[in-house]
Specification:
The chain is built from five helices and seven strands, in the order αβββαββαββαα. A hairpin with a 2-residue loop joins strand 6 and strand 7. The radius of gyration is 50 Å and the shape is elongated.
Amino acid sequence: MLAISIIALVISGSALPFTVWAARAAAKQAEAARVQARAAESQTALQREQVAAAREQTELQRQLAQESSQPYVWADIQPDMQQGTVLHVVVGNSGPTMAEHIRVTFDPPLPAAPQQSDRVDHVQKILASGLRSLAPGRILRWTLGAGYELLASEDSKVRTVRVDASGPHGAVPATEIEIDISQWRQARDAPDGSLHHVRGAIKDLTKVVGSVDRTLKQAALRSQASEQPESIELDEFDAPFTRRRQIVSQQDAD
């Protein structure tokens, strides 16, 4: 028995290096497997991030496409640049598509000249209840009155303007701005103009003068034609009484 134990011990001792080597190899394989697993997890996480970024970019592009195709409705108080002394409340659509359900509110209410107060109140009710639609590039104007009347007092005239509207992709984000028309007291109020208008007026005047000149020439020609004496040519085959009539006419003329 002792001999068998010794033999077994010797065999175990000789197999120990192989066992240690196998254990180390197994440990290395396990470590490599863990590294591969971590790499796979990292790659999977990276792929997930790429997918999330692609989705976010697609959503952003979709939102940008929708926003670019939405109407842009605005409201303002502006002077009349053709007259220079009248103020208007203006609502316009500068977007590429049709705007619907447009609501414009002013807080406090719009200022108005005494003779325009009833009309301005009616306009505010229309804008608050909502315009049915407004085409792209369309601008609507309503008169508030003369600027010197609206800016006569020195008190602040701040108005908060809120605009709500809808477009092809639903409601458009509401916009709010503040307007203080009392700051316009010293601003230039002369109407716009240029030499283009003067040139156009001269061109129109030239056309009228040319037409009158042609009319006068035609009238003069007709007058000259009516004043010329009628000439009677003799023909050798005329009847005798016609010849005698011509001779008598010539004697009378002499």
